[in-house]
Amino acid sequence: MLTRRTLLTHIAGSLIAVMALPAWSAPEPASPTDLKPGQFLWHPEISPAGPIVLVVSLDEQRAYVYRNGIAIGLSTISSGKAGHETPTGVFTILQKDKDHKSNLYNSAPMPYMQRLTWDGIALHGGNLPGHPASHGCVRLPQAFAQKLFGETKRGDTVVVADAKSAPMTLAYPAVLAPVNSVGKTLLETTGAPDQYWNDSAAPSGQVGILVSLHDQRLYVLRDGVLIGESRLEAKALPAFEGTTLFVMQDGYSDAASPLDATQKLHKWTAYPLLGQSAGNASPDLLATPSLPMALPPSFAAQLYKVLVPGTTLLVTSLPAVRPVADEQNLQPVLESDAGGATL
Fold first, then answer.
1. Where are any strands of DSSP class E within 79-173?
2. pTM of the model as a whole
3. Torsion, Cα of 197, 199, 205, 207 (10° steps)
4. Residue 124: which of 59, 105, 25 has the closest Cα?
5. What pLDDT does residue 257 have?
6. For 259, which of 49, 82, 138, 158 is 20 to 30 Å away at the CA?
7. Which fold has domain 6-171?
8. Can you tell me the distance from the alpha carbon of 125 to that of 40, in angstroms, rounded to the nearest whole number?
9. Which CATH class is domain 195-316?
10. Predicted confidence band at 242 (pLDDT cuts at 50, 70, 90)?
11. Separation of alpha carbons 94 and 154, rounded Å
């Protein structure tokens, strides 16, 4: 069984590849590191369905939201200050309360609270001064906390990591999730295969495809699980800069599919996200002269079979893979009894 983290170990700067403008009126930051306290990026349409995982990077003071294994949101945070550090580990959302008030700190409002432990650690909206300042909770911008609250459910996974207790890719995640839907680290094997296909790994669920033109590789996820990966054969790097999201529609065109010449070409709608105009975005990216790339025929035929209306295809000119630090294990799942809950 292939369990490699090559797919999921991305430079933090490449997260901007899947983000357009922030979901509120503020100038677009040049990169995720340029986000000012209280700013966030939010684009749930990038991956409209599938399991949600939140990765909180204490080092970066950032939170990354993944759905179906692909980033849909990024936000600044404020974690626990000295003496009240936010614990690292793998958590599940135990409780949600839109109008929660603290029973520890003078009924302080904690809007859009999502409890991680019964002894006082949660996600919630609050003030972000630009540094760790809480009593252990993870503060989020109010508007982001509201949007996240509307997308998550009890039982969803939250991973809290820093460089001292987790692999680099958990402390500094990016485009694709470095963990699966239950928070397990996805490990890397030596080398990258020319192609890999195992659609039985996730027989059903939302299909998402990521194409990294820089790395000349394509990844296929279903329900947040990697089911396929392949090199892209290219005579020359395409003259394509930026990021475009494509969503498969109902119906077909009269042309043959570049994936399987015996089948019709699916209809796609393009949504330029970064550095692209609608006129430059093309739905059959693997066939256009400006993108002289092709997949191995056997892989392409398998890929065609899993395409269904609603499938997302994200194409970016940014790199997808970065070197990883020595493997380290996450701290075990933090478990508590529900009795005497405080927050």
1. 89-92, 95-101, 109-115, 122-125, 138-140, 157-161
2. 0.66
3. 30
4. 105
5. 83
6. 49
7. L,D-transpeptidase catalytic domain-like (2.40.440)
8. 13
9. mainly beta
10. low
11. 6
